[in-house]
Amino acid sequence: MRNPDTILEVDDLRVYYATPQGDVKACDGVSFDVRAGEILGLVGESGSGKSTATGGVLRTISSPGRIVSGRVVLDSDDILEYNDEQMRRLRWSKLALIPQGAMNSLNPTMTISAQIADVIETHEGRQDEDALRERILELFRRVGLPGRIYSMYPHELSGGMKQRACIAMSIALDPILIVADEATSALDVVVQRVVAQTMLKIKRELNVSFIMIGHDMGLMAQVVDRLAVMYSGQLLEIAGVEDMFESPAHPYSEILIDSVPTLTERKSMRINEGITHDPRNPPSGCIFRLRCPFAMAACAETRPPMVEVRPDQLVACHLWKKTEDGSYVRQSV
Ligand SMILES: Nc1ncnc2c1ncn2[C@@H]1O[C@H](COP(=O)(O)OP(=O)(O)OP(=O)(O)O)[C@@H](O)[C@H]1O
Ligand SMILES: [Mg+2]
Fold first, then answer.
1. Is the pTM higher than 0.85?
2. Where are the alpha helices (DSSP H) in 126-172?
3. 260 burial level (CB within 10 Å; 0-12, 13-18, 19+)
4. Is the bond preceding 304 in cis, omega lying within 30 degrees of 0?
5. Which residue owns the Cα nearest ligand 1 atom 30?
6. Which atom of ligand 1 sits closest to the CA of residue 52?
7. Which domains occur in the chain, in start order?
8. Tens digits of per-residue pLDDT, 68-97?
9. CA dihedral over 295, 298, 303, 308, signed as positive or negative
10. What spacing in Å lies between the alpha carbon of 35 and ligand 2's midpoint?
11. How many helices (H) and strands (E) does the chain have?
12. In angstroms, rounded to a whole number, what is the distance separating the alpha carbons of residues 46 and 186?
């Protein structure tokens, strides 16, 4: 059921990459919603399809990738049906992207402020010089950057400052949703936290929503409102972050959460190897079954549908069985 706060709904999105050996189904029937003013975390190991799924949402997929099917509904429009011009107007102004590696792809020959000015003027036309300068300085203030960087070039800034400059750019046109793809991953641990805090502050002050893609479950736990777990092109679970950490419903979420280290309780590392199958030839049934400690015969037969096993906690796993009163219980095996 559609949540009243939903601002964006992704329904059964499929994005494939053509390869000589067949299609890689990098995003294979992914459905989720994003709600007003929330940070939705998207986690999953490298290659699980996080960038592809959000690239499908923002229509940034290029050859050999293609959007095969699905719906991405924003303000009751399916934006997968938008033409290029409609999509161009939507980017930055409603949906902004901080791409993976953004801070390293800032234009080295332009000052940060000139790059932000470019974004603004491309969408809104020529601006009064003083007003534009004031507006950019205000963006810097919002993300905690000092005004003195106004005339600096990317190479004169630290990694954390560059990343904040990318955040400043993403909020320049007041979007309703920002996709931050691994915005903290290349940074030192302390700087990662500072940048994540900046996103949290922006979320609160501007009431903008984020999809925050990352690997670090510990960092996610501190900033996101809900968490979505991806594995090999599919979403396995989506839930509020407290529910997910206290009682993960999917065995894979359990493993991910279990592997968050704490000093007081040194945990054995239960799982480390990557996705075990060839992505062009995924297993039948459940995509996770080759690595699942609880795999049963049913898991090889059908792909488990996403079901709401607790309020607002959805999981795709055959361990959960519907009872006569309509509630779900997890089988013990
Ligand atoms: N251009 C491409 N051609 C073929 N396969 C691709 C291409 N781009 C991505 N893939 C495949 O799609 C799958 C998902 O990749 P994607 O980059 O979306 O994962 P990710 O979760 O963002 O990973 P990471 O954490 O490393 O950024 C991977 O199996 C990858 O090899
Ligand atoms: Mg990625």
1. yes
2. 129-142, 159-170
3. middle
4. no
5. 47
6. 18
7. 6-330 (3.40.50.300)
8. 999 999 988 999 999 999 999 998 899 999
9. negative
10. 22
11. 10, 14
12. 14
